[in-house]
Design a protein that fits this description.
This protein is α/β, with parallel strands linked by helices. It has a domain at about 1-75 and about 155-165 and about 180-235: Rossmann fold (3-Layer(aba) Sandwich). The chain has ten helices and ten strands. It has helices at about 40-50, 70-75, 95-100, 105-120, 120-125, 135-150, 165-180, 195-200, 220-225, 225-230, and strands at about 1-10, 15-25, 30-35, 55-60, 65, 80, 155-160, 185-190, 205-210, 210-215. Strands 6-7-8-3-9-10 form a six-stranded mixed β-sheet, with helices on both faces. A four-stranded antiparallel β-sheet has the order 2-1-4-5, with helices on one face. Helix 3 (about 95-100) runs parallel beside helix 6 (about 135-150). The longest helix has 16 residues, at about 165-180. The model has no long low-confidence stretch (mean pLDDT about 95). The structure holds adenosine-5'-triphosphate and magnesium ion. Adenosine-5'-triphosphate binds near residues 16 and 192.
Length: about 240
């Protein structure tokens, strides 16, 4: 479904990603983990078209997408949930959700998305009229993910949803993501909470200093010596 081949990318003259290759198949739940500043967010920005790679190729559904405008990539079925959620705090839950559907013209489709989102996130259904700014941290994360689903994406890129959440809420968010995969949504998840992440995803990639240094099934990665030492705190 998604394939990055030898992607080099950065900001102006600053190189951040070096020969990054990774794949996400339809229906998979894949993680991209790595330390601060490794370039994880830059990978997601490159896929969603915010950053234009200097070299290599990004393909989605057998089509080259690097160089296409962000909106077109979104229309093709890729949704990006940023780590800050990018919510409009002065707007209600409902208004924020509708912003996520701005690329969708079909009203019936929007209604269907809303119905399934309220089924998946009953708390949001109860709080349609509440301002996003007055929601709790966990509720805002859920709203950001829900908004990302409003365009009915084939692939959703989620950047550090556990950031700033209490452990119990982290589990709630991860459980919701797992639920999504059982509903047929494909997920590329960026996380620093490696321990929990490797318990729920199918496969993962480890990015360090802009390069993929390790990849494998979640079981393989959990048993890898470097990952045990550097990410799981197991000597
Ligand atoms: N807009 C930007 N302009 C210039 N440099 C940037 C920009 N965004 C990120 N960088 C730099 O690119 C590198 C990778 O950043 P990126 O945000 O992709 O890392 P990350 O792995 O997501 O880190 P974190 O875990 O802290 O979110 C960093 O050195 C960062 O300073
Ligand atoms: Mg980041």
């Amino acid at each position: 479904m998604l394939k990055l081949s030898n992607v080099n990318a950065g900001y102006g003259k600053l190189g951040v990603l070096w020969n990054v290759s990774l794949e996400v198949h339809s229906g998979e739940f894949v993680a991209l983990v790595g330390p601060n500043g490794a370039g994880k967010t830059t990978v997601l920005r490159t896929i969603s078209g915010i950053v234009n790679p200097a070299g290599g190729e990004v393909r989605f559904m057998n089509q080259k997408i690097n160089g296409l405008p962000v909106q077109q990539i979104m229309r093709m079925g890729i949704s990006f949930v940023t780590d800050d959620g990018c919510l409009f705090s002065g707007m209600t839950v409902m208004e924020n959700l509708m912003m996520g559907a701005y690329t969708v013209n079909d009203k019936e489709k929007v209604k269907n998305s809303l119905d399934s989102i309220f089924e998946l996130f009953p708390r949001l259904a109860e709080r349609k009229k509440q301002f996003a700014g007055s929601m709790s941290g966990g509720e805002r994360k859920m709203l950001a993910i829900a908004r990302g689903l409003m365009s009915d994406p084939k692939l959703i890129l989620v950047d550090e949803p556990s950031l700033g959440l209490a452990p119990k809420l982290v589990l709630d968010v991860f459980k919701t993501l797992k639920d999504l995969t059982t509903r047929g949504v494909t997920i590329l998840l960026v996380e620093q909470n490696v321990n929990t992440t490797l318990k729920i995803v199918d496969r993962g990639y480890v990015l360090e200093q802009g390069s993929i240094i390790q990849e494998g099934s979640s079981t393989e990665l959990r048993e890898n010596d470097h990952i045990k030492k550097a990410y799981l705190g197991i000597a």
